[in-house]
C-alpha cells in the first residue's frame, strides 16, 4: 500500500473518484483457512447479535437509542486482528460490534442494552455508554466526534508512559466534520502520537449523504494539512482492512505518529431504530448487500477453496446463534439494578 500523494488537489480528487466508485482496493492480506474461519465467526457473531438486538428493541426490551452496525462488520473485525494486548479502542454510539470484537461478552453487552445488573455498565449506561477496562475498550460515546479527542488522549498516555501501544479512534463520516477532530489531528501530528484514526464512511450521517454534507469527500485526506498520511480502504473486505491495519499499526508503533484509515463501508439498517430511511432507495441497499456483503464474501471464499462445507458453516452459524440466544435470555431474566445504584459511579 503506497502512500497516496497529498500534494495536489486534483490528484486527490481523481484518487477519491476511482476508489469510491467500486471499492477498488489497496492491498489484500493473505488469509489462511484459520484466518478466514475466525473472521467469519467474529463477523457473524456481530451480525446475529445486532439482529437479535433489533428484535429485542422491537419487543420493547431496550429503551433509549440503539444504533445497529449491520453491514460494517469487516471494519472492526479486520482492525482487531492487527492489535496486541494493551492496544485501546474507542468509538461513538454505533458500538456493539466494536465491543464484541474486543472480546467483551455478548451477555454483558446485551444485558446493558436491556438495562440489567449484569450489563457492562451495570445497566446504567445503555447502548451508547459501555466500557471495559479489562478489554481496553473506552466507550461508547453519544456526543458525535468526542471520541476522537479522547482517543488522542489515550495515545498521549501511551506516549507519556513510554509503552508501544496504539489507540484506535473510530468515527463516522459525519463526525469527520467536527472541529475537535482537527484540533486532535494537530496535536497528534505535532507530538507524533500513536493513534489510528478510522473514519467509518458508511455514506450517511443520520439521513444526510456524504456528498450533501462534505466539501471534501475523500476523508483519507482530511489530515493532509497536518502531514498525517491517509488511505482509503475497502471496508467491506476483511482482508483489505487487515492489510491496512497491519501497516497502520506498524506506522504508529514505530513512532511515526498518527495515521488515517478511511473505511469505505455501508450500514444496511437505519441510522437508529426509529429511522424510516427515506433518504436512500431500497435498491441501493440491496445492491450493497448482494454485491459487497462482508460475511458472504468470506463464506464464498471458504466454500470455493474447499476450506469449509456449507454444513460446517451452518454449524458455525448455529454456535453463534446459541451464544446470542443465551445473551438474550440473560438480558431478559437478569434483574434491573438496585435503586441504590442511582447513587454509585457518579462524580459529585
Ligand atoms: C455533537 C453532536 N451533534 C449532533 C449529534 C446528533 N447526531 C447523532 S448521530 C449523528 C450523525 C453522525 O453520523 P456519522 O458520524 O456518519 O456516524 P454514523 O451514524 O453513520 O455511524 C448526529 C448528527 C450528536 N449526537 N452530537
Ligand atoms: Mg456515517
TrEMBL record:
It catalyses: N(6)-[(R)-lipoyl]-L-lysyl-[protein] + pyruvate + H(+) = N(6)-[(R)-S(8)-acetyldihydrolipoyl]-L-lysyl-[protein] + CO2. GO terms for molecular function: pyruvate dehydrogenase (acetyl-transferring) activity. Its cofactor is thiamine diphosphate. The keyword Iron-sulfur does not apply. CDD domains: TPP_E1_PDC_ADC_BCADC. Residues 1-17 have a biased composition (Low complexity). Residues 42-339 form the Dehydrogenase E1 component domain. GO terms for biological process: pyruvate decarboxylation to acetyl-CoA. Keywords: Oxidoreductase, Pyruvate, Thiamine pyrophosphate. The pyruvate dehydrogenase complex catalyzes the overall conversion of pyruvate to acetyl-CoA and CO(2). It contains multiple copies of three enzymatic components: pyruvate dehydrogenase (E1), dihydrolipoamide acetyltransferase (E2) and lipoamide dehydrogenase (E3). Heterodimer of an alpha and a beta chain. This is Pyruvate dehydrogenase E1 component subunit alpha. It comes from Sinorhizobium fredii (strain NBRC 101917 / NGR234).
Amino acid at each position: 500500500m503506497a502512500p497516496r500523494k497529498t500534494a495536489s488537489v486534483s490528484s486527490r480528487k481523481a484518487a477519491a473518484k476511482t476508489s469510491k466508485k467500486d471499492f477498488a482496493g489497496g492491498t489484500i492480506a493473505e488469509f489462511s483457512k484459520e484466518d478466514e474461519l475466525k473472521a467469519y465467526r467474529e463477523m457473524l457473531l456481530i451480525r446475529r447479535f445486532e439482529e437479535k438486538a433489533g428484535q429485542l428493541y422491537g419487543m420493547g426490551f431496550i429503551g433509549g437509542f440503539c444504533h445497529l452496525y449491520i453491514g460494517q462488520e469487516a471494519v472492526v473485525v479486520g482492525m482487531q486482528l492487527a492489535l496486541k494486548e494493551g492496544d485501546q479502542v474507542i468509538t461513538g454510539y454505533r458500538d456493539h460490534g466494536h465491543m464484541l470484537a474486543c472480546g467483551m461478552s455478548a451477555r454483558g453487552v446485551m444485558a446493558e442494552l436491556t438495562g440489567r445488573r449484569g450489563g457492562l455498565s451495570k445497566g446504567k449506561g445503555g447502548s451508547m455508554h459501555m466500557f471495559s477496562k479489562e478489554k481496553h475498550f473506552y466507550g461508547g460515546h453519544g456526543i458525535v466526534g468526542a471520541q476522537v479527542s479522547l482517543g488522542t488522549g489515550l495515545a498521549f498516555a501511551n506516549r507519556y508512559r513510554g509503552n508501544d501501544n496504539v489507540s484506535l479512534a473510530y468515527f463516522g463520516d459525519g463526525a469527520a466534520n467536527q472541529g475537535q477532530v482537527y484540533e486532535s489531528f494537530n496535536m497528534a501530528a505535532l507530538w507524533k502520537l500513536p493513534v489510528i484514526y478510522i473514519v467509518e464512511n458508511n455514506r450517511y450521517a443520520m439521513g444526510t449523504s456524504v456528498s450533501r454534507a462534505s466539501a471534501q469527500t475523500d476523508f483519507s485526506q482530511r489530515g493532509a494539512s497536518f502531514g498525517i498520511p491517509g488511505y482509503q480502504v475497502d471496508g467491506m473486505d476483511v482482508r483489505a482492512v487487515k492489510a491496512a491495519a497491519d501497516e497502520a499499526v506498524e506506522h504508529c508503533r514505530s513512532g511515526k505518529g498518527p495515521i488515517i484509515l478511511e473505511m469505505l463501508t455501508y450500514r444496511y439498517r437505519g441510522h437508529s431504530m426509529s429511522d424510516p430511511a427515506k433518504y436512500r432507495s431500497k435498491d441501493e441497499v440491496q445492491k450493497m448487500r448482494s454485491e459487497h456483503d462482508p460475511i458472504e464474501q468470506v463464506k464464498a471464499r471458504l466454500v470455493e477453496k474447499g476450506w469449509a462445507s456449507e454444513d460446517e458453516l451452518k454449524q458455525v452459524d448455529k454456535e453463534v446463534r446459541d451464544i446470542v440466544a443465551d445473551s438474550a435470555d440473560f438480558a431478559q431474566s437478569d434483574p434491573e439494578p438496585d435503586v441504590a445504584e442511582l447513587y454509585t459511579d457518579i462524580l459529585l
